Amino acid sequence: MLINLPEPESVTNIELKNGDIVFCCNFEDFNHIYLCKSSKNTIPQNNNFIIDASKIKDITIKKNPKRGEILKVKYEEKIFRAKVLDAFGKMYTVFLIDIGKNISVSADEVFEISNESKNVPGLAQKVGLKGAKDLKITKTVKDYFHNLWFNVPVPLILMCDEDNFNCFNEVNLKRLNNEHDIIDDLLNICNTLSNDNINQLKPIVQNSKSNGSSVHWRIPSGEHVEFLFGNNVENIHVRPIKLYEDYKNILNEFKNGKNDHLKTICPKTNENVAVYSMKYNGFYRAKIIGPCSDDTSMFRCSFSDYSFIDSISLKHIFELPISESVNTVPILCQRVSLAGLTKINNNNSRVISYLGQLVGNTLILEYDKKAERWYKQVILKDLKNLSINEEIQKLCQPMSQQRRLERKIVIPEKKENELVKPIHPIKSGSTVYITHFENFNSIFIRDASHEFIESFNKFNKQMIKYYKSACVNRSSNKLLNIGDKVCVISTLNPIMYCRAQIKDKINDEFRVFCIDYGNEELVCAEDIFELPKELEKVCFIFV
C-alpha cells in the first residue's frame, strides 16, 4: 500500500493495432520484443506505472506472495508492477508486466499493490520482428535496442498485417520522425561484423533463442573428433579435437572460476545460459531443455560442450556472459546422424551397445562438402579407416532379415488378457493428446479415444497393483545393461510406475527412455525394478 501517492490514471484500449505509435521497452531476442503504446504527447503509456522509488514515502512489504500473484517490486531504483513466477528461498523470480522483463528480487523488495492498480492488464505486449530470422544477436544489437528505450524513449510506428492471425509474430517498426525501418539499421549492424571470426568454421544458424544465436558450426570434413555419446544412429554427439584444444583453457577457467558477476535469470526453453552444476562441480555453458515436471524450480539442461544432462536449480542458472557466448566460443558438442542407416531401428540393443563402446574414441568425420544439412549424413571412421557406418550395417543385417521373416509368418497367440490386444497405428483424423514434446521434429502423441484411455488406465492400475503388492526385486546396479527393458518410478507422476529402456549410464544414474510416454529421464538405480514379461509385452503405440 502506497501512502500520499496518487493512483495512476486508468488505462483503456491497450491492444496493439496497425499504425499505433509504440515504444520498445524490452528486447530479449528477435521473437521476444516487448512494446507499449504511447499515450498523449507520445509519452509511453507505461510511464504511469513506473514510479521513482525515492518519491515513495511509505510502502508495505508483501509477505509470502503466491505464484501468479500481481504485486509491486523495486528494480533499478524504480517501482514496477510484477507477476510472481517462482520462489527459491528468500528470492523471487517475477515478470515486470509493463515492460516485459523477467528479473529476480529479494523478499524485502516485494510490496503490496492496490486493487485498482492490480486490475489493469499488463501494458507490455510481445511481438516478433519481420526480416530478422538470419540475424545474430550481438552486444551491438542489444545496445541498439537499449538506446530505443533508455534515457529518451524513441517513438516507433507499428506496421503489421491485421488480416493475418499471427500478425504480431512478424511486424515492422519504423521511426516516427523519418519512417526509417529499424530492420535496415540492424542489417547494417550485422553486415559490419566479421563472417569468419572463428578459424575457418562456417556457421549454420539453427534458431535465434538466447543472448547469442544458437549456432551449429560446420566441422571440416576429414576432421578428427572425439565420440562423446550415441544412443542411436540419428543421435550421436561428437566434439572436434582441435577446436576443443583451442578453447579448453577458456572453458576450464570458466568452470573453476568464482563468477560472482553472473546475473540470475528466468530461463526460456532452448536458451543458451551459464549454469552451476553441483553434480559436475563447476560452471558450464548449457541449453535449457525445459522445467522439470516434478519441480518447477529445477530445469533440465543439456551441457553444450560435454554432452551430458543435469537438473539445475533456478538460482544456479545465469545469463551467459559475452566472453563465453556462442558468438565468442562456438558450441563444441555437435549432434550428427550417420549416413545410409535411416532404416535402422533406434531401439536396437546391439547398436546401442556398440555405440557405447565408442565413447572417448578419436574418429574421423566425413561428409559431402556440397551438402547444406551435412550433419544429417556423416560418415565416421576410426584411425585405421574402418567405417563405423558399415560396421553398424553389418551388425543389423541378421536382425533385419529375421524381422522380414517375422512379418511373413504370423503365429496367432491365445489372448489371456484384453490388455495384450495390440493397438492399431493412429490414423489421420484421430483424436490424440501429446505425451512429450522434444522439438518440432520430435513430438510424441497417443490415441485419445475413450476405448484406448480406458485400456491404458487399466494397465496403469495393473502396474501399481503389481509393484505395490508383490515383493519386486530392485535391479542391481551391476546387472543393469544398456538396452534393458525395466520399470522405473515415474518423475512425471510419483505414484505411477513407468516402463522404460536403459539408454546410458551417467555416474551413478541411468538415462532411460520411457516407453509409453516418449520422454527421457535420469533415474537412480534404487528407482529401477525388474519388468516381468507379462507387463513388457503389452503394447501402447505412440508416434
From TrEMBL:
Q: Which InterPro entries match?
A: Tudor (IPR002999), Tudor_domain_containing (IPR050621)
Tudor domain segment(s):
480-538
Domain of life of the native organism? Eukaryota
Extract the SMART domains matched here. TUDOR
Xref: Gene3D superfamilies: 2.30.30.140
Q: Which PANTHER family match?
A: FI02030P-RELATED, TUDOR DOMAIN CONTAINING PROTEIN
What is the name attached to this protein's record? Tudor domain-containing protein
Q: Which organism is it from?
A: Sipha flava (yellow sugarcane aphid)
Q: What is the lineage of its organism?
A: Eukaryota, Metazoa, Ecdysozoa, Arthropoda, Hexapoda
